[in-house]
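Tokens for chain A. Residues wanted.
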């Protein structure tokens, strides 16, 4: 039974084990640490952009002997050997001196091209290369793919960063390219900009910037105006500045945590101490909570109970915590974990074969967000955790950190609760009552005055661009939204256009009209009169409006077909460097001139193959430039509007590493493709007016014993775990992978905290903090019961994108399948007491095979289709950058029957009644010719109308007399004065309103060309190249029962 397109899966040997388990066998805590070493190693291949440094990370690609054992690069950050640095939280003294000399990563300078050490062969079945893509159930081929949690480009295995003076993480990503490029000027560049601050002998080089800022302070080398040298000396490098309230207290004990400075007296306050205790006594109660959800304890035979899809949107599992704790917990839409019950040890995690990681949507638009303006931001003196609902108060004057367990003082100011205006109840402060909170940051959190909002637009005006007519839409959108751009009186704006030359526009206040300046030397771009090119929006608004009105007409006669995108980006970068800001680039073709020029490399006849496709960048130009941008607080958003192959794999790097976003409008044309025009307009409106944070950094902390290693999303990893985000937007999602470094047997709760420090468009420095608390469990059954199948699928998708790029698409597909086989095998053999025939799964994972099958059929990973390469790459970008909720919708769309919508079960929002039809399985079995069905696939809505659809729906909703009169291309529903029309439109509008992008609606008849797309999303059905859900289950069962 050979099924093309189904992953070869050699069996249950694999995956999660390798990543989690094998690493400890290799004995070294540092996986990908070699960042800076990589910087010096000369063999690293540079050819493929962001993944290049990863090429070596596949054990089976690396002869073991080429690695120096000293480097100790294991394949996982999960080693049980604790590195010296990982102990920093326990050993206070580590905080006081740069432990650089003993930096364990240094030896790996000698390692070869690979930053990682191969697994022992016995544990690495992947060592044998095998033909990929073949489907040989039953054949005893070696398992082709192990997940390695650290194979990622943005891997960071150094256990914790904030305490680590050597800035390893940053180099992690990129250094190989710098190295092999041999471009010393570039290295200098980077060093100058402060990104790379460590030299190998352990001395501290340049520390600029925001690396330590989120830590709350500044370094002696940073801006002197902001700091007191004595102070920073006494607090030490990794013990950043203290809030004012702390500054006169005794320095923290160097002998460890838990010992408060003896000089402090704890005056008892007037209020009785009533904090809800978090801890053992409550845990006992919470454990018994398991029995409260009998459904969750069910074991399901998927071969018998095939329809496990709930008819309402799947809710994330609720962590098994005492309700007093859970009610304070972070909203899962913002912050969730793949396992809501954290395994006590890495060994237990290895047994479960499930990935451990976090999915974040940290800057999501929130209706309610408590903002604290207090001058004192209370943080742990040891690990810099922000005080949060899950700390414990020993008494009114002392609180114990829930991440490192240090006992801290409650500063005097914190004794007063501004909400109740009562003194002596620190535990009732908003900081301790809200898992999501925002602080106004005092000046210690700034290295320079907050930057003004700066918006630079870079437009392709070549012949091809003019043909699409996009400039009209964009300029009109800008005109419409000019006053809504987030900002203040300091907002600056500028424009660059380019074809074979670069055009600047002087918008100096007082000019009667904008002045165009053409720079034709694209080899060495200079900026003519830079002071007049980025201008104050308020002062030059009329000139800006003038320009936007004339721009679309200026190039209508152009015959210039060349595109000097690279030089234009360089010019834009130079222009923005002094301030930072947001660069919005509109491109309509493959760049052909100057630096960054690209060649077509898509081979259409290979589109359907899982092999030999170009998922990696063909040049590192865009990545390098993105890193320069990141260093200067510039983010680049790319709008690609192209009907032709434009090598998004290469171009996308400019956004990926500068924390920008990518938008893609294939075949955009103002006349031929009106729905794309509509989509662009809607999305531009959101883009231009949504909240924006500038010069941001994000750090994720977790309870001692856990270790964060690999990061997914658009950013640059600076100083091991600090994500550099020149811009942050409310529509971006992130994921991280974790391991259990040290046993958690002594703790019952663990916490995760993300802190996002940014400059608002009003020029305020703010910190948004989310804290998530989860229970620790000791049995495999509990781990399985708490599994969050959506989060797991989302994390696996992120990992699979990386695997596709570093290895191959078929390898990634295999790994996805093996993830299911491995976890269900583990469940069967270790957690299931009663062995029965069938495919037995815990209730929590009942949708796991379905979601993985859906991923295999998702545009990113599908085979056997004629998807354009750029579309696939874009889908992969989306996987990495979208919040989980949208990723799931793209992967497993929601299907509703809509020809019989009723108000039964409807919800009422702002006086509108929104019908809530049940969600149907994605199978043609669920369709009927006498109905109409709406598929919500995230970025697209498809309304399939059956040939015998009731007359009522046709006339009352579609406004046509009969089926044959439905227009061939229908992308809008008429607003008819009928209840049916109102319901349908209300439902569709409601779906659209819930997402930041604009899904196009297609009404589909049987003859419609879109019908194939509709059917392609029928995940449960068999296609030419992919198994049906039932066949997939049989395959999984066969492997699990082996
Ligand atoms: Zn702490």
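Reply:
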């Amino acid at each position: 039974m050979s099924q093309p397109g189904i992953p070869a899966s050699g069996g249950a040997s694999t995956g999660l084990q390798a990543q989690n388990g094998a690493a400890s066998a290799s004995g070294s805590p540092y996986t990908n640490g070699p960042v800076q070493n990589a910087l010096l190693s000369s063999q690293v291949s540079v050819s493929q952009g962001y993944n290049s440094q990863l090429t070596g990370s596949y054990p089976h690609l690396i002869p073991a002997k080429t690695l120096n054992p000293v480097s100790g690069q294991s394949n996982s950050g999960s080693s049980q050997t604790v590195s010296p640095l990982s102990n920093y939280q326990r050993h206070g003294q580590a905080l006081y001196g740069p432990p650089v000399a003993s930096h364990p990563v240094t030896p790996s300078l000698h390692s070869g091209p690979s930053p990682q050490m191969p697994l022992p062969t016995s544990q690495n079945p992947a060592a044998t290369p095998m033909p990929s893509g073949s489907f040989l159930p039953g054949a005893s081929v070696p398992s082709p793919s192990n997940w390695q949690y650290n194979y990622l480009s943005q891997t960071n295995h150094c256990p914790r960063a904030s305490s680590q003076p050597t800035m390893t993480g940053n180099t992690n990503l990129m250094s190989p390219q710098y190295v092999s490029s041999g471009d010393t000027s570039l290295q200098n560049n980077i060093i100058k900009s402060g990104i790379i601050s460590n030299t190998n002998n352990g001395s501290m080089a340049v520390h600029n910037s925001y690396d330590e800022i989120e830590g709350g302070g500044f370094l002696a080398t940073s801006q002197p105006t902001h700091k007191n040298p004595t102070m920073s000396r006494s607090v030490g490098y990794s013990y950043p500045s203290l809030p004012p309230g702390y500054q006169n207290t005794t320095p923290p004990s160097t002998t460890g945590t838990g010992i408060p400075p003896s000089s402090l007296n704890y005056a008892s306050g007037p209020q009785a101490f009533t904090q809800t205790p978090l801890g053992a006594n409550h845990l006992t109660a919470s454990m018994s909570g398991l029995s409260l959800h009998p459904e969750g304890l069910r074991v399901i035979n998927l071969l018998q109970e095939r329809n496990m899809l709930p008819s309402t949107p799947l809710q994330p599992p609720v962590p098994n915590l005492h309700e007093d704790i859970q009610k304070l917990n972070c909203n899962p839409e913002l912050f969730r974990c793949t396992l809501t019950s954290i395994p006590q040890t890495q060994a237990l995690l290895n047994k479960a074969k499930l990935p451990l990681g976090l999915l974040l949507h940290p800057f999501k638009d929130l209706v309610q967000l408590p903002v604290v303006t207090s001058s004192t931001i209370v943080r742990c003196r040891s690990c810099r955790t922000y005080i949060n609902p899950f700390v414990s108060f020993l008494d009114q004057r002392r609180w114990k950190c829930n991440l490192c367990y240090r006992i801290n003082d409650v500063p005097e100011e914190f004794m007063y609760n501004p909400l109740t205006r009562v003194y002596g109840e620190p535990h009732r402060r908003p900081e301790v009552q809200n898992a999501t909170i925002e602080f106004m940051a005092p000046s210690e959190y700034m290295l320079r005055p907050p930057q003004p909002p700066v918006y630079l637009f870079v437009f392709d005006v070549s012949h091809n661009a003019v043909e699409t007519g996009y400039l009209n839409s964009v300029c009109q959108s800008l005109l419409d939204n000019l006053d809504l751009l987030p900002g203040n009186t300091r907002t600056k704006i500028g424009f660059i256009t380019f074809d074979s030359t670069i055009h600047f526009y002087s918008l100096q206040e007082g000019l009667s009209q904008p002045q165009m300046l053409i720079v034709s030397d694209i080899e060495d771009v200079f900026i003519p009169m830079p002071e007049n090119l980025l201008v104050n929006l308020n002062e030059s608004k009329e000139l800006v409006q003038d320009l936007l009105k004339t721009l679309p007409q200026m190039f209508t006669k152009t015959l210039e077909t060349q595109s000097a995108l690279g030089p234009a980006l360089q010019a834009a970068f130079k222009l923005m460097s002094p301030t930072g800001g947001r660069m919005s680039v509109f491109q309509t073709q493959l760049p052909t001139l100057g630096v960054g020029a690209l060649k077509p490399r898509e081979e259409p006849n290979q589109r359907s193959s899982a092999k030999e496709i170009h998922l990696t960048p063909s040049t590192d130009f865009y990545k390098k430039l993105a890193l320069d941008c990141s260093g200067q607080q510039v983010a680049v958003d790319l709008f690609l509007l192209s009907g032709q192959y434009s090598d998004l794999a290469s171009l996308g790097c400019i956004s990926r590493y500068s924390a920008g976003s990518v938008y893609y409008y294939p075949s955009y044309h103002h006349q031929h493709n009106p729905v794309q025009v509509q989509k662009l307009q809607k999305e531009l409106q959101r883009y231009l007016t949504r909240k924006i944070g500038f010069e941001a950094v994000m750090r994720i902390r977790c309870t001692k014993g856990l270790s964060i290693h690999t990061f997914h999303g658009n950013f640059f990893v600076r100083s091991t775990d600090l994500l550099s985000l020149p811009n942050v937007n409310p529509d971006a999602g992130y994921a991280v992978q974790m391991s259990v470094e040290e046993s958690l047997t002594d703790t019952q709760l663990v916490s995760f905290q993300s802190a996002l420090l940014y400059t608002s468009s009003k020029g305020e420095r703010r910190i948004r903090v989310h804290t998530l608390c989860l229970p620790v469990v000791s049995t495999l059954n509990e781990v399985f019961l708490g599994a969050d199948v959506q989060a797991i699928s989302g994390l696996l998708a992120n990992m699979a994108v990386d695997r596709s790029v570093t290895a191959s698409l078929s390898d990634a597909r295999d790994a996805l399948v093996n993830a299911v086989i491995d976890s269900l095998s583990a469940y069967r053999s270790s957690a299931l007491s009663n062995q029965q025939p069938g495919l037995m799964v815990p209730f929590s994972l009942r949708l796991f095979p379905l979601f993985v099958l859906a991923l295999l059929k998702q545009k990113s990973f599908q085979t056997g289709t004629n998807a354009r390469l750029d579309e696939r790459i874009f889908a992969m970008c989306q996987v990495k950058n979208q919040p989980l909720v949208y990723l799931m919708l793209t992967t497993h769309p929601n299907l509703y029957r809509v020809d019989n919508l009723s108000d039964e079960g409807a919800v009422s929002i702002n006086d509108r009644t929104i019908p809530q039809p049940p969600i149907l399985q994605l199978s043609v079995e669920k369709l009927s010719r006498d109905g109409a069905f709406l598929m919500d696939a995230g970025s697209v809505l498809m309304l399939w109308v059956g040939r015998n659809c009731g007359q009522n729906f046709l006339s009352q909703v579609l406004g046509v007399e009969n089926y044959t009169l439905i227009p061939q291309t229908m992308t809008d529903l008429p607003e008819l004065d009928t209840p049916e029309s109102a319901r349908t439109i209300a439902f569709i509008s409601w779906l659209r309103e819930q997402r930041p992008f604009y899904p196009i609606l297609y009404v589909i008849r049987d003859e419609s060309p879109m019908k194939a797309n509709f059917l392609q999303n029928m995940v449960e059905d068999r296609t030419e190249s992919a198994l049906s859900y039932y066949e997939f289950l049989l395959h999984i069962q066969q492997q699990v029962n082996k």
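The chain has a mean pLDDT of 76. Residues 809-831 form the longest helix (23 residues).
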